[in-house]
Amino acid sequence: MLSSRYRPWHIPLFLAKYGWLRLRKRPVLLNFEVTMRCNARCGFCDYWRTPDSARATEQADFAAIAAHFRPMLVTFTGGEPLLRRDLEDIVRRVRAASKYTYVQLITHGAMLTLERAQALWDAGVDQFNISLDYLDGRHDAARGIPGLTARLLDVVPRMRAAGIGGVRFNTVIKNDNLDQLIGIVDTAARLGGGVNFSVYTALKNGNDAFALQGGDTAALEAAIASLLAYKRRRAGVITNSDWYLEQIPRWVRGELTEPCESGTTTIHIDPQGRVRRCPDFPADGPWQSYAGYQPISCDACYYACRGEAQAPLRIASRVRDVFATVTPAAHE
Ligand code: SF4
Ligand code: SF4
After folding, report:
1. Residue 332 domain-assigned?
2. C-beta 34 within 6 A of ligand 1
3. 39 C-alpha to ligand 1 centroid (Å)
4. Which of 71, 147, 295, 319 could cysteine-pair with 259, CB 3.0–4.6 Å?
5. What share of the chain is helix, strand, coil (3-state, %, to 5)?
6. Is 54 domain-assigned?
């Protein structure tokens, strides 16, 4: 699902940039972790324990990195990026530093007022990726933020009404939200947004209470089948490739044998400007030391960024995924 800022004729330009980057073996996506601080209280991630004093070590500008790599995609992430009061400036400078770069922002959304969203949209954010794992109140408890779901469901339609055209829910598939997935997709479609699914892992702090277990994956497979069927009925709401969704039960059963290609098409830059191959590996050195990563034998997660990087380019389905979303009537 592309932001409304773009039109179909932009797609060949992005594809050309993708090809140019891959030919040069350079990363396509840069994740800028602008802070590790967070004001949620998730039980499955300890970033919120990062002391406030870490603010002093967060670099002010990521533009030089963007200018060096000229990626096709930049994602501002954290921690909670909206805690950075200078986020609009950071976004603006990155946008100016790299042309034809699609800019995304991942947020838990609790501080996303219409005014802040508008300022970030004006600064150059193309797409807001807002975490939402349940519709029935459990999301508030899971994030430790009372009233969060209601706040998100209030601000998203107001963002859309204000002309902010790129809104997705980031939904993590867990062992206790399989019954919520289609409801979240329906809600996103009704609000004029999309959904990007990923899969829970306990890597952040070892909490495996929400991990999907191997063995009987019938319920998971049924949930995945319903998502694939939804994609057939209505393109452009679920943004994952068919391939990624299809592999999730295989990963849960431990059947994936392919090496992880993290760090080849996607890299992470931490708040101090150091590079790492994926969010859950330690930093390797200053970003200037990046010399590429080799695929690695690691199966610890199946985040969408890992799975989608390995997805074969099924032209028909991916073109349908992308073009369906730039049709103005797609979400009406
Ligand atoms: S999962 Fe996200 S919202 Fe929760 S503590 Fe970690 S960074 Fe914050
Ligand atoms: S599977 Fe890949 S992305 Fe996931 S933790 Fe391992 S190296 Fe990182």
Report:
1. no
2. no
3. 8
4. 295
5. 40, 15, 45
6. yes
